[in-house]
């Protein structure tokens, strides 16, 4: 009987536990705390945080429980991540939620979304310099796009073994946008610039909103065909929303479908961060590079907005440049809050949504470009 | 077993063609968004023209007035070359023209010039046509452009 108990004890988590599992469980708890208490991206951090707990329960290998065991339920769910199925579904939902009116009213703001992608390519160079191979460096660079689904999609295609650290880094920094961006915004702009008021955008007719996703899809995908899975779904979702006659489909895409995909993606990505796989030197580098990437992306958006002001008759508030990173709508919200601190009557949220959504398009193009260049 | 030697820093970037990839990548992202931004900025104009094609005609007409034709240039030159005495002769023709209808045959004005004893009537009429003080009405007759006359004389 003692032997039976001993045998059972040897199969429990208490016996199999490793310090790395404990560290990851603590990180998972921090994610849950940030999501639930601090309200930082709860829809992402709560599934990922809980997924970390799931993935770091010490298990006896061979029972078909772990996410990396081919016969486990988690492994089947993780298939949607490794094959890049969930990110396009999330993009479909994002498209069905997004209103491109402000972008259509002032298309020049789209350039800020492009400028912020500089962060992606600078981080790519940084990752190469740290010894990562080009495919891994591309996957790490895309963290600067500040777009979780895009980062996961590209990593699944180019460096599947890095999905865990890259996804966690991308979502952590997205959640920390309100902490990371404001100091950079203040550092790179003067008070006078932060007080600039934006012109009221024109009213955009419905037919323009309907035509936009079709034109954007054709133009961008002809230029960068590898962006098709993400941009195709984003534009399709937006067309469903704007076409009105497909409201029922749009409703599903922006509620049940995106929620289902987010739950499965968040949970399995979290579960993929098993201590023994996740806690490596590479993960530390990825986190450092991810933070750099976010900072550079924010800075390049701000600097480019100031550069544009040299030529524009009607000046833009350079804070909008920070919204070029595509963390929708958090970075737009941060721009709004920083603007309000300077002038409580200057409402920038609506204007910041333009570079914000163009950042989504920009990061999808950047991912497509990196994917095609690496193949 | 073959040992893999990892390289770092600028050497690693150069070996992986990193500079070129970054340059091409950022250029493609910018070109994509710049072209999309341009198309969007023209979209509402295109839709307006689609809805009302006469706007296209108006746009071209407006452009025409912005860029003067060669004929306009020659008219300007002819007006600028008028001497004081030529301007005096034009004033006399303006008086003669009062005896005519609004739309008149050129031969009638020539006749009035001859019988009034004005010097070089053919040359003077040519001057009036060149400066567009007299304009064809496209029905075989001519009209006197009072606005042009006032501007010149």
Summarize the SSE layout with pairings.
The complex is a heterodimer of chains A (375) and B (153).
Chain A: H1 2-10, H2 13-16, H3 19-36, H4 42-55, H5 73-82, H6 86-97, H7 101-105, H8 110-115, H9 118-129, H10 134-141, H11 148-158, H12 163-175, H13 177-188, H14 191-194, H15 206-223, H16 228-242, H17 247-271, H18 275-278, H19 281-309, H20 330-342, H21 349-374
Helix pairs in contact in A: 3-4, 4-12, 4-17, 5-17, 6-11, 6-16, 6-17, 9-10, 9-19, 10-11, 10-21, 11-12, 11-21, 12-19, 13-19, 13-20, 15-16, 16-17, 20-21
Chain B: H1 9-15, H2 18-51, H3 54-66, H4 70-80, H5 84-97, E1 103-104, H6 106-115, H7 121-130, E2 134-136, E3 142-144, H8 146-152
Antiparallel strand pairs in B: 1-3, 2-3
Quick structural overview:
The complex is a heterodimer of chains A (375) and B (153). Chain A has 375 residues and is mostly helical.
